[in-house]
Amino acid sequence: MFYRQAGIRHRSYVSDSKLFPIPTDRNLIWFLVLLGIIAPLVVDSLYLNSYVLPWLIWTAAALGLNLVTGWAGQLHLGYAAIMAVGAYSAVHAARFGVPWEFALLIAGVSAAAIGTVFSFAAMRVKGLYLALTTLAMQFVMDWVLSHVPAVTGGSHASLQSPTFKLLGQPITSDAGLYYVAFGWCVIVTIFILNMRRTGLGRALVAVREKDYAAAILGVNSFYYKIVAFATSSFIAGISGALLVATFFFLATPEQFSVNVSIQVLAMVIVGGLASIIGSYFGVALILLMPGITNSLFSAFADYLGLQLNPETLAHIPTAVYGALIIIFLMVEPLGLGKIYNNIRDYFLVWPFDQMKK
Amino acid sequence: MDWIFLAELSVNGALTGLLYSLFAIGLVLVYKSSSVPNLAQGALTMLGAYIVLAFSLSLGLPLWVAIPISIIIMFFVGLGIEKVALRRLAGRPIVMILMMTLGLDIFIRGTTMAFWGGTSRPMDLGVSYDPFFAGPLLLSRIHMIGAGVSVALFIAIVFFFRSRLGIRLRAISDDYMASWSVGISVERGVGLSWALASVVAVITGVIWGEIQSVDQSLSLLLLKGLTVAVLGGLDSLFGAVLAGILLGILENVGAAYLDPLVGGGSRDLVVAIVLILTVMVRPHGLFGRHDIERV
Amino acid sequence: MNSTNETEAAKDPILTLNSIEVLYDSVLLAIKGVSLEVPNGGMVALLGANGAGKSTTLKAISGLLKAERGKVSRGEIRFDGQVIGDSPPQDRVGLGICHVIEGRRVFEHLTPDENLEAAAPISMSRQTLKSEKERIYSYFPRLAERKSAEAGYLSGGEQQMLAIGRALMTQPRLLMLDEPSLGLAPFLVVEIFDIIQKINREQGLSVLLVEQNAVAALKIVSHGYLIENGRVVMHDTAAALKANSDIQEFYLGGGEAKNFHDIKHYRRRKRWLT
């Protein structure tokens, strides 16, 4: 944020690896958490549940993908398939009468199990070939979702999610559902924040940068790849389950199709690889964009007195979404997280950088 | 087992497979000359078909005029893609290049749909729908024509890659820096490869448009084309042709026997499984280079 | 040979760098004012330790900096009297500057024959192409023996010869070699340097040679520049450099051990020079 980080002098390794080197940083985070807590009082419940809630859950999901793609450097084009595994296993478990707490756990564990299968591909190949394999796995999952009625009820069917309950209390109010999403997003964020500064995070980065160099240093790259895939899949599974339980209320195969996988990857890339704050921004941009462009275009057409074809209007968000990805990669491939850092760095030295010239 | 039925499935599968090869040739062209996986080829195919339709239906031009005009337009579209989108990404990590081609795919699909809408339109090449009888086998005429075009294109491009210009493109794919150092314009070379891939996309779009009519589903050929390209070994044209035939047969025969068991739609499953198995067992495909990033 | 080259140098240097500065990513100053001259038809060496800025200097001349997000932020580069501004690498190759980049970097999946063809200007006629290839095979007979194997399978020495031969196909007037001795056996280094010298004599090709192997380099060049930390700290004839005790100590090895005072003295003198 916009204050000068003067006077940080680390005297020990512990102080260097502290999460927040300056107290103001920590206070700022507390302030943001406080904002999150009072949000239901301030924000209209329509906006809260149709924008803020999905934003938080998708952010948790995007952070999970960022773990495997941003930090561990493994391309993953089948993330939605993993989310589907979590969503469907949780809904089936809940319908079976399992309490939601355990249903979510089952979602995470089953997703992690399938995610580990994906990681076997990562042991064999990397880069483009890994992307293609995970993409193919996504297609297999799409096929299973639309062709195995025992799981989904068939391609056009949807599965009703039972009322969400925690500790036996049904949660149906807007604020209640919001707090569930908020809580999950905070948990994932705290996990990733801490992962970054521990051995796990450093090992993942080492594997990303050069896996055999990491292996020479004693980092078991196979092990860490499995850990990365399993952890991120766990997050994906629970995020997928929560998405169905608190937002869609229905599980359908299209919610987890290949396009969704690409969308989550777009969120991560637009946000910035290996950037936490970037994931928040990226998800917000990609989620809000269709609504914004649609209203912009209709307003623009109204202003000009044009009658836009509804079909045209329906496809413009897709075009804008693609353009957004292209423009971000052209202008700032490191994403919104990097743009945020650049702006902050600019203001950090603001009046003084002018003097240099 | 009915051998005639199996033979017919195989031959028709092989013909369809050669049409996948046609698509895959577009992928191989770009990969062989810039090492970039072109995930936008599906969208380009769709765009190519729509442009041909725009000239033939909306402007009323005959197809033999509309197709060459579209080819010229798409040539420049391909050049533009390199100039605008890919030039800045040279040397960036593969995840960004992949995402760029995915972004291009989404953008082109969205724009095309916004212009022409989602209704499917026929591409009438005037090929008879009567089956062609080869002994006891029933074959589709348009598939045969498409397969012929595919083989002809394959031969033409093989010769192109032996020419001095083609050698330069292959040099670019090997090493950008070294190419610059001896005065090869990497930008122009990569642009040319995208332009040629876009031209191939028009041809693919026309033939597939005749077979399944022109709509958004043309871009879904990407999965099959990718599988063919990977199975053949991403940078091998001959591999793409052979893998196309193989995949076509496998898919047709596999689907005929699997569909009754699972209630239809097993073609995509067969394709996805072939892709996974290829990468797991032999990532460089049948004829690809061996310098694949193995773990 | 030295004396004739010196008189030519006074007449018309083919390459002049006038205190150029190179900036990477618009922040990192890699070269802080390098000036040098390559006489027409002469051979000049650029010596220095790792990271001193030798390769960056060559990339600034050949325009390859652009590929690494670097740019010449100050100073001018003159080739044959003309200022080369911001032109792309292929234009500079067209002018006659060819850069053999570090680490050989042949086109691995092309045969040596195709490697040579790839580098030939597209306007070159088939006839000339053929005779040019013959000329290069005559310099490097080893390559002719293996002209249809994939270049990736050639030995290190053969790859280096191919890299030089490929550069010669561009019809250069100035050949810049970046560490041609890297990772090669000493007898191969001698062989390659002999060939470079031979081409220099026979074709009047100017050569700018970057080397870590100062002993080998100083044997064939007429002049040497010493770069440290992005600055030219010393410039003299090859003979004078070889005789210089500091150079012997720090770059050639084998001088008598010096005491701390001498090193301090050397460092101070170096500062004066820059």
What does this structure look like?
The complex is a heterotrimer of chains A (357), B (295) and C (274). Chain A is built from 16 helices and four strands. With 357 residues, chain A is mainly α. Chain A has a single domain, classed as Orthogonal Bundle (ABC transporter involved in vitamin B12 uptake, BtuC). Chain A has a two-stranded antiparallel ribbon with strand order 1-4. Chain A has a two-stranded antiparallel ribbon with strand order 2-3. In chain A, a hairpin with a 2-residue loop joins strand 2 and strand 3. In chain A, helix 3 crosses helix 13 and helix 5 packs across helix 6. Chain A is globular. Chain B has 295 residues and is mostly helical. Chain B has a domain of 201 residues. In chain B, strands 1-2 form a two-stranded antiparallel ribbon. In chain B, a hairpin with a 2-residue loop joins strand 1 and strand 2. The mean pLDDT of chain B is 87. Chain C folds into two domains: 242 residues, Rossmann fold; 31 residues, no CATH class. Chain C has twelve helices and ten strands. In chain C, the strands form two sheets. Chain C has a six-stranded mixed β-sheet, with helices on both faces. Chains in contact: A-B, B-C. The interface between B and C is medium-sized, with 23 and 34 residues.
Give the termini separation of chain B: 44 Å
Helix content of chain B: over 70%
Secondary structure tally, helices of chain A: 16
Beta-strand percentage range of chain B: under 5%
**Total beta-strand segments of chain B:** 2
CATH architecture of chain A: Orthogonal Bundle
Order of helices and strands of chain B: HHHHEEHHHHHHH
Within the largest sheet of chain B, what's the order of strands? 1-2
Rg of chain A computed from alpha carbons, rounded to a whole number of angstroms: 21 Å
Fraction in helix of chain A: over 70%
Output the helix-strand order of chain A. Answer: HHHHHHHEEEHHHHEHHHHH
Q: Structural class given helices, strands, pairing of chain A?
A: mainly alpha
User: What structural class do helix, strand and pairing data of chain B support?
Assistant: mainly alpha
